[in-house]
Amino acid sequence: MYIAVMGYGVVGSGVVKVLQMNRDHISRKSRHGTIDVKYILDIKEINDENAHLVTKDFNDILNDSEVHVVVETMGGLHPAFEFVSACLKAGKSVVTSNKELVAEKGLELLTLARANQVNFVFEASVAGGIPVIRPISGSLNGNEIQEVAGIINGTTNFILTKMIDENMDYNTALKLAQENGYAEKDPTADVEGIDACRKICILSALAFGKHVYPGQVYTQGISKLELKDVEYAGDLGYVIKLLARSKKIGDQISVVVTPALVKKSSMLACVNGVNNAVLVRANAVGEILMYGPGAGMLPTASAVVGDVIDCCNHYMRPKFFGWLEDASEDFVRDYTESETSLFVRLSADSDKAKINELFGNVQFIEKEDIAFLTPVAVEKELREKLAVLGDKVKSVIHVTDF
Amino acid sequence: MYIAVMGYGVVGSGVVKVLQMNRDHISRKSRHGTIDVKYILDIKEINDENAHLVTKDFNDILNDSEVHVVVETMGGLHPAFEFVSACLKAGKSVVTSNKELVAEKGLELLTLARANQVNFVFEASVAGGIPVIRPISGSLNGNEIQEVAGIINGTTNFILTKMIDENMDYNTALKLAQENGYAEKDPTADVEGIDACRKICILSALAFGKHVYPGQVYTQGISKLELKDVEYAGDLGYVIKLLARSKKIGDQISVVVTPALVKKSSMLACVNGVNNAVLVRANAVGEILMYGPGAGMLPTASAVVGDVIDCCNHYMRPKFFGWLEDASEDFVRDYTESETSLFVRLSADSDKAKINELFGNVQFIEKEDIAFLTPVAVEKELREKLAVLGDKVKSVIHVTDF
Questions:
Q1: Which domains does chain B have, with CATH numbers?
Q2: pLDDT (tens digit, 9 = 90+) per residue, A165-188?
Q3: Predicted ipTM > 0.90
Q4: Considering only alpha carbons, which residue of chain A is nearest residue B308?
Q5: Which residues touch B65 (CB under 8 Å, ≥6 apart)?
Q6: Chain B interface, mutation test: which of A28, A136, A288, most B Cβ atoms within 10 Å?
Q7: What pLDDT, in 10s, does the model give residues B247-274?
Q8: CA angle at residue B32 from B106 to B53, to 5 degrees?
């Protein structure tokens, strides 16, 4: 079977590489024998051994009836969206690693795919090489999913691991991440949680059946986190991770991306460096977790190629993700109306008697600053009480039950 | 769509329960709408709300053309094998949780299923509710798998966790496992590694394409493990887990079930209590791990029901596992010909100068006994050297690179 690859950057070139290096193996896993790349679409000059496959004209792919599956690894919304739409309309299945595209246009593209009896699949868009989408939307189909929580940004997890294990401050850790190629020169999308937000939108849609858009998710990154937060949380038995969480509460869901405390004994606390993990709670299975490399050329290509083989094997048989409609404003509730405990760090001269009066008797960590955990209550009410303490409050971080 | 459930024990009754409690949800995940149980086959008297579905005659199921999918949760080889074979021949897909059946008869039953254009699927046979089979034989299809390693027996992991965390001796921990319902009255199949052996046979077949039979796997349980081993391994930075491992080496594989040392920093070391985890190393993705409850009524039922929905959605379209032939004796190599490091515990009066002469300068843990780790070498050669030390050697345990 022939495929085309649009975008020959890190992921796209990885896809071609994996298809070539594992060609014989893949031919044994595919119902239709070998899978070969017929076109590579890219605007830049390519001089490697695949140069003869390069085209700059998208129509070469669109109009070639031998190409049944198209891989989109260009990134960004445009022209990816237009190209993918055109391919689906032309009866070609599309495999993408583009989380922005899926988070913003997933429902529209899945609807288009179904109408044309082809597949639109995106395992690589969340957590790189880790199989998460197939388990959630296949293996767990017998369950009502209650909660999905993930460490789904490798850059921030690398930085946090350095802060936790080596007492390295945020800026030094970020610089190290950039030097190692784990962070972009402009790290905003990673460190401010924008990347994780896109991914939790995709996981929410798969878990709860409605398209949650990035604009509906409260998103806070790690750029304001101080070493003291990490240290004091450690004293209380927790580590701080950037967690993306989506939880069913009644007929609604609460979705946030925030730094959060997880118990040191939790599997999530064991996820270090650029690795990712996705945890699912569901009413029959209980709690499962999937762990592995959340980014990188070959791991991400692994997920793309798995999807390509699946598209070849399910030619003209669209997969069903149950991702059926937009999430209304009602469906995504104000996260501050949910119950949580909060980690609070304050200056040492804060009024401890007042704090105990507000929150009941709490256990203080007393160092240069002081810190404590509130009891579990509605976040809005907790924050109203904290407002009484004014600018003594230096940081407030969610405490999870993981 | 109608299904039948053969065997109304813990798993079978869990399957019926999950299908009933999540009925509406499941109908939305299934292409063919609701999934209802038409028959329950069991020889014992059943007096619960499903009593009206019970039959004692297998032919009721076999001859009912409305039943498209049959769940086998009877356990054991006979009559499970005969019943499953008859169902497949009659054009019914079969979902099983029976690891003994899959480990002994998997190839034969998959061949029969393919010949009849139906499915034979068995997600629940390994690691309970954790999705492992679909990820390995689907998501990772673009990879050459290099190694599979798992903590795939909850009973022994519970016992080991108690030994590690609470310094509890083996017999006390086993008794506690029995009191909690985690171990059978006769715990042999669990503690001697027989259960884990069946599961690694199934994982080996999926990873490497050939049916490895339990008789081909060197299997050693945890019943001879002493607290001193756990303690000294801890001093060296390791925990002891019962690991089932299958590794590609050239054109062969090495498969064993043994207690083994894993680094405390490893994700496998974080897997505690009755939980299971399966780790996969593959040439594109690198290392991934899947974690969760390895047994129990509802988790195992979760896996069975996921497979049932898949069978309904893939009616008359057999899945392809690439599990194609028996593993020859040549294919499964003598594990002692592979390289490893060994943890060795000896009596305190052992000849340390001799040990250093045999193994190079090693680091000793010196307590009531002494212990050390050998360098990495061919196991057979290491054991020949250890033989020189005679009955001073009290225990020898594999050290892994996890």
A1: 2-128+297-324 (3.40.50.720), 133-293 (3.30.360.10), 336-399 (3.30.70)
A2: 999 999 999 999 999 999 999 999
A3: yes
A4: A142
A5: none
A6: A288
A7: 999 999 999 999 999 999 999 999 999 9
A8: 70
